[in-house]
Design brief:
By secondary structure, this protein is an alpha+beta fold. The protein is about 20% helix and about 25% strand. It has eleven helices and 34 strands. A hairpin with a 5-residue loop joins β26 and β27. Keywords: Repeat, WD repeat.
Length: about 600
């Protein structure tokens, strides 16, 4: 994002100017990588001028010029312009060449002809002539694509100013020859029909010439230019974030919710890792098959063999709603809406139901399926949800909140489990055999299928929408990169079987994978390394599911065939949960269905 002292640029030669990308242009720019001549300095002696010591080429093993440019950019990003100028002056290193500065100014000022002229002189990476200060493209960059982006911005701005005639000329003569995507071209053509600038901005998902659109364009273009001449935006901040992420990912017992400090190496105390039962909840009368926290972590839903769903308050873990309405066979799956105000439940009675979680009222019952409804997920906008069923005619269906069917994906397989990526790109279905079916949710096309030697028992997708976690009946869980389809990690040490055992991600930064097990244990693995960091005896004979709180890295819950739900944390927090439970306990309203435990 552009950081500026005023709303415009001062084009006078020799004046400094704030730039997007955290840069600062000053007079007499040298070609990037060149150094200015520095005056001789008095060295504090009475003998007059002394020759200045040449600075070493490296800084603790890092290229000195790269480090200096990063510092100049970071200082500008933080608003320390004078300090940035001072570093540039003392080092003799400038952030960018005059050509790069001119290109940046042309984009931000909307000087499209000048921008294209500068781009026309760009050279492919690795072929720069000595002394050439022109643009240098990044590997794989395509000038025609960059030109298309520039001309598309020009087209949109002409439409916004209601200069339809010139916009049409740009579309015909400038954009059409470069466009490789006919659907994109048809979409741009359709924008000519917009009745107002507001209508245009809404339809194009574009904020206009006076919004951030030019800055966004510059950011896209900068990724196509070699970093040796045009640093990526906020590069030092990105590098520091990578350092933090790396330290977190290698912390075997990471539980800290706050980001690590840059002052020292990060590590978490093992004693803070949740491994103690702090509450035992026995309000269910049958096997408990699923436990799931709400997105905001303030409530928890449980369901199972006894046909009703319990909604619990967190952290008191008192039942606030008991949802009745499903018939024989039990409730196998629930899903919270994105705003946590609704809950979809799936029953073996061949019905799926929609509930108001604030009042506990039944809002909708979907049309009856021919076979049990197995699974459900919500679309990110909260206006529709998807069910999976053993009913082949409605194996995967999308429904609106009125209970109307929007779309049916397939009639080729039964569905036993569903997962939808948070970015709404991937819809993954688990059939009742050994296959996963991966659909593009936006196009609704089947992208690919995966066949396993053992039957999958549960699937889930990480919050960054990158990884698919598959638990299998052979006692192995796999982490798969959804885009590349490559196996990232394996997790072993738990026991599978013929029943569904649910696994998932959890902990601070989703650093862990957690799963139930046929032998009643909970297994916890470090997601990156695959190391098993915990194996906890939880239920008898089977632990059906475990779910980590999305807002509290010190808390997860488990459920099993012993009709119990258990809340896990560490010794330090055992007293807290007991106190919370006691403070909200009403002996008239509640039965003695809990037992805070701990050392």
């Amino acid at each position: 994002m552009m950081i500026a002292d005023n709303n415009g640029y001062d084009p006078s030669n020799g004046a400094s100017e704030s730039l997007s990308n955290g840069s600062r242009a000053v007079s007499r720019f040298q070609t990037n990588g060149w150094r200015k001549s520095k005056p001789e300095a008095l060295n504090g002696t009475s003998r007059g001028k002394q020759p200045e010591m040449a600075a070493p080429a490296t800084f603790h093993g890092h290229d000195r010029e790269e480090v200096t440019r990063l510092l100049i950019q970071a200082l500008e990003d933080m608003g320390y312009s004078s300090a940035a100028d001072s570093v540039s002056k003392d080092s003799g290193i400038q952030l960018e060449s005059p050509t790069v500065t001119a290109f940046r100014r042309a984009i931000l000022d909307g000087s499209w002809t000048e921008a294209e002229e500068l781009l026309a002189g760009a050279q492919a990476c690795g072929v720069r002539s000595p002394g050439d200060d022109g643009l240098l493209l990044a590997p794989g960059a395509d000038i025609s694509v960059m030109k298309f982006w520039i001309r598309q911005q020009k087209f949109l701005e002409l439409l916004e100013s209601r200069d339809t005639a010139r916009a049409l000329v740009v579309l015909r003569n400038d954009l059409t020859p470069l466009c490789r995507d006919h659907n994109k071209l048809h979409f741009l053509c359709s924008l000519l029909m917009c009745q107002s600038a507001t209508d245009l901005r809404t339809k194009a998902a574009w904020d206009g010439a006076y919004g951030q659109s030019r800055q966004v364009l510059l950011s896209d273009l900068s990724r196509c230019i070699s970093p040796s001449v045009m640093l990526p935006e906020h590069r030092l901040a990105d590098l520091l974030q990578q350092v933090k992420s790396s330290q977190i990912s290698h912390c075997l017992y990471h539980t800290a919710a706050e980001p690590p400090s840059l002052y020292f190496d990060h590590t978490c105390d093992r004693s803070q890792f949740p491994s103690e039962v702090v509450l035992e909840l026995d309000k269910h009368s049958g096997e408990v098959w699923q436990v799931l926290f709400s997105h905001d972590g303030s409530r928890m839903a449980t369901c199972g063999q006894d046909r009703y769903i319990l909604i619990w308050d967190v952290p008191s873990f008192e039942v606030v709603h008991e949802l009745h309405g499903h018939g024989n066979g039990g409730v196998g799956n629930v899903a919270w809406s994105p705003d946590d105000k609704m809950l979809v439940t799936c029953g073996h009675d061949r019905f799926a139901k929609l509930w108001n979680t604030e009042t506990g009222e039944l809002m909708r019952t979907l049309e009856k399926f021919e076979e049990p409804v197995s699974s459900c997920v919500w679309v990110a906008d909260g206006r529709s949800f998807i069910t999976g069923s053993f009913d082949k005619s409605r194996a995967i269906c999308q429904w609106n909140l009125q209970g109307d069917k929007i779309y049916t994906w397939t009639k080729n397989h039964r569905t036993e489990g569903l997962a939808l990526s948070p970015d709404n790109r991937w819809l993954v279905a688990m059939d009742d055999q050994c296959h996963l079916h991966v659909y593009n949710f936006e196009t609704r096309d089947l992208e690919y299928e995966i066949e396993f030697k053992a039957r999958p028992t549960s699937i889930s997708i990480s919050q960054d929408s990158r990884h698919l976690l598959v638990n299998k009946a052979d006692g192995e869980a796999q982490l798969i990169d959804i885009s590349s389809r490559e196996l990232v990690q394996k997790y072993t040490g738990h026991k599978g079987g013929e029943y569904l055992i649910r696994s998932g991600f959890g902990g601070a930064n989703e650093s862990f994978v957690i799963s139930g097990s046929e032998d009643g244990y909970i297994s916890i693995w470090h997601k990156l390394t695959g190391i098993q960091v915990g194996r906890l005896h939880a239920h008898h004979p089977r632990c059906n599911a475990a779910s980590w709180s999305p807002t509290d890295p010190y808390v997860f819950a488990s459920c099993g065939d012993d009709k119990e739900v258990k809340i896990w944390s560490n010794k330090d927090r055992a007293l807290f949960f007991g106190t919370q439970r006691l403070s909200s306990y009403d002996p008239v309203r509640s039965s003695a269905g809990w037992n805070p435990s701990g050392p």
